[in-house]
Amino acid sequence: MTDFALSYKERSVLEQLTRCSTNGAKEYRRTQALLWLDKGESVQEIAERLRVSRQSIYNWAMRFQEREELDIVARLIDGERRGRPRTALGIIDPLIDEVIEGDPRDLGYRPSVWTAPLLQRYLEEIHQITVCTESVRLALDRLRIRWKIENENNNTLKTKGYHFEHNYGHGQRHLSSRLATLILLAYLLHNLLEWMDDKFCLLRQKLPSRKRLFNDIRALTTYLCFDSWEALLDFMLRGWSASPPPKSNTS
User: What is the 3-state secondary structure (H, E, C) of the chain?
Assistant: First the structure.
């Protein structure tokens, strides 16, 4: 948002509110978001920092600007809700998944772990979604089933030498996502080699695991320089085909 700007009075009052311990977590986040917008930070950065959607940031800023006739504290409060209420199924699951592995204290709550009642409060305060505790528990059950499927399907990427974690691509910046992308590309390349490169397939058959193969390649390329990928594979295959030295007769 390039057209959002606070007056001196608005900025002063909002800064005082951030230091006031009587404000709830919901008001604190909205106050902080408005101050960051005023400083020129992007909506995307603020949304990632507060772990809310970009639309929530837009809604907070628009509501604050449209209520100029009210006092500043009242401009931070939720507006009247209209229309049919949204159902919980399919809506709260991604919102819970977004924060469940984090620390609630980072979002202004006192507990150090998420519980169903705390998630219920989070959904109401941050996303203006009112659901019962049972709906939250059902969403957690659905997420556990999905996590189980992901863990089983992606087991190769986590235990076969690729070091790909469940939430590897998360982060405020882009480094983790880029590293995760490189791991996926490496996995794709290795599968293509198994389909198209006979020498690579032969090595895979001789070695007990992918991890062993990666470690052997890493060790060889640390100390030796090969003219090509073919030369490296030929060198490794010659090592397997070489006859062991004859035993010396010490008698």
Answer: CCCCCCCHHHHHHHHHHHCCCCCCHHHHHHHHHHHHHHCCCCHHHHHHHHCCCHHHHHHHHHHHHHCCCCCCCHHHCCCCCCCCCCCCCCCHHHHHHHHCCCCHHHHCCCCCCCCHHHHHHHHHHHHCCCCCHHHHHHHHHHHHHHHHHHHHHCHHHHHCCCCCCCCCCCCCCCHHHHHHHHHHHHHHHHHHHHHHCHHHHHHHHHCCCHHHHHHHHHHHHHHCCCCCHHHHHHHHHHHHHCCCCCCCCCC
